[in-house]
Design goal:
This protein has about 300 residues and is an alpha+beta fold. It has helices at about 45-60, 70-80, 95-110, 120-140, 145-155, 190-200, 205-230, 230-250, 260-270, 290-295; strands at about 5-15, 25-35, 85, 155-160, 165, 180-185, 270-275, 285-290, 305-309. The radius of gyration is 20 Å and the shape is globular. InterPro entries: GHMP_kinase_C_sf, GHMP_kinase_N_dom, HddA/FKP, Ribosomal_Su5_D2-typ_SF, Ribsml_uS5_D2-typ_fold_subgr.
Length: about 300
């Protein structure tokens, strides 16, 4: 047995900000994916994934039935047979590994599910996001539900505010374009929960709160608008500002060996770095107007292009 594929995602803009109602833009990233599967001779990884699903089934049993109910007997049966999530999505990298699993479970076992083929009204999208938020909270404390939503729909999602999200189109890629969005591999696994608690602790500080509102959210919102409009000049101006704000105010979320590279990008304008997800490790997102220059400047780093301008 092998279920349909669910893809990873990249939150281009909005990390941390969306907790406080900034805009956000999340796109599917088809390079990584996962599917539910049963093998006759499971690997060690498959066995561990299955053990995690055993615990997850118990968690799903207790979710509010009014919100979402599952065919728990069939799910339990499949898990007893050794079902696991076969995934190439790296865990702790900010590209939505648990989100894809949640989407796969909902797709296969939820009763009365909202499907991708329906007319996706704002109400339906919000309901899905609420369901996914509850389902994903098992994996890292508090979840916005956006990762599974992105994975489930396989569409770019525009977050206007907490209660206003929509599926959106993004400008089509210029395959011969010099500009690019890329991922840098920090080589470290990041844990979401501790990073979010550092952020929540900082939020108690009035100076941090006003920086978030007056700088971080302002530039994030501008980046989202620029990206969707295809205004590249303005996008790079705002991404640079955002990169600066993150370096000055989110240091714990940036792995220490990247502090210098982050600064270097701001000084040379060869590239600008920003967090991908909650930070602390995993991937770092990069934006450049000239990918060849960026590759040269970041020699020795593992770099993956995800979008061309």
């Amino acid at each position: 047995m092998k279920g349909p594929l669910f893809y990873s995602k990249i939150l281009l803009f909005g990390e941390y900000g969306i907790i406080k109602d900034s805009k956000g833009l999340s796109i599917p990233y088809n390079f990584y994916n996962g599917a539910l599967k049963v093998d006759k001779n499971p690997s060690q990884e498959a066995i561990e994934s299955n053990e995690s699903l055993v615990r997850y089934v118990n968690y799903l049993r207790n979710l509010d039935k009014e919100l979402v109910s599952f065919d728990i007997d069939t799910l339990q049966n499949d898990v007893n047979k050794g079902m696991y999530f076969d995934s190439s999505i790296p865990q702790g990298y900010g590209v939505g590994s648990s989100g894809a699993l949640v989407a796969a479970i909902y797709d296969k076992y939820a009763f009365d599910k909202i499907t991708v083929l329906e007319n996706l009204t704002r109400e339906k999208l919000l309901k899905l996001k609420t369901i996914f938020s509850e389902m994903e909270s098992f994996f890292h404390g508090k979840s916005s539900g956006l990762d599974p939503l992105n994975s489930y729909l396989s569409l770019p999602i525009l977050i206007n505010s907490k209660d206003n999200i929509e599926a959106t189109g993004i400008p089509s890629q210029q395959t011969d374009g010099k500009g690019a969005v890329f991922l840098l591999d920090s080589g470290i696994v990041g844990e979401t929960a501790p990073m979010v608690s550092i952020f929540m602790e900082n939020m108690k500080n009035e100076g941090f709160r006003s920086m978030l509102k007056d700088q971080f959210i302002k530039h994030t919102d501008a980046c989202v608008d620029d990206f969707l409009k295809g205004d590249i000049k303005s996008l790079f101006h705002n991404t640079k500002q955002l990169s600066k704000v993150v370096l000055n105010n989110f240091k714990p979320m940036i792995p220490s060996q990247f502090h210098e590279l982050w600064k270097k990008g701001l000084e040379t304008n060869d590239y600008y770095l920003k967090l991908c997800g909650s930070g602390g490790g995993g991937y770092i997102l990069g934006f450049t107007e000239n990918i060849e220059k960026a590759k040269e400047a970041l020699k020795g780093q593992k770099l993956e292009v995800v979008y061309n301008f």
